[in-house]
User: Fold this.
Amino acid sequence: QVQLVESGGGLVQPGGSLRLSCAASGFTFSNYAMGWYRQAPGKERGLVAQIGINRRTNYADSVKGRFTIFRDNAKNTVYLQMNSLKTEDTAVYYCNASPFWGAKGAYWGQGTQVTVSS
Assistant:
């Protein structure tokens, strides 16, 4: 069955960095656009970044220049490198797989908590 397993979350100080990973299985990874979404308490889940099958990328305005999404099709893994973290980046981060660029898909990971605090 389809599995998306996130890792790499944790507690980091403002200005710090984290790298999230999402290991995928159960579907043809290279045929899917992969995305990272986040949800803070009391807020809706929203797109952070997406990478297409041709490695085209799209970012939320709030993370442009600080976050980088990339994928390794040989390892069926998508990554989110997060630099210059801010307290407002605190959220649960979810991995998503979609057969369509620009849209969220039906496959979700369980989420990983990122807390930015001094």
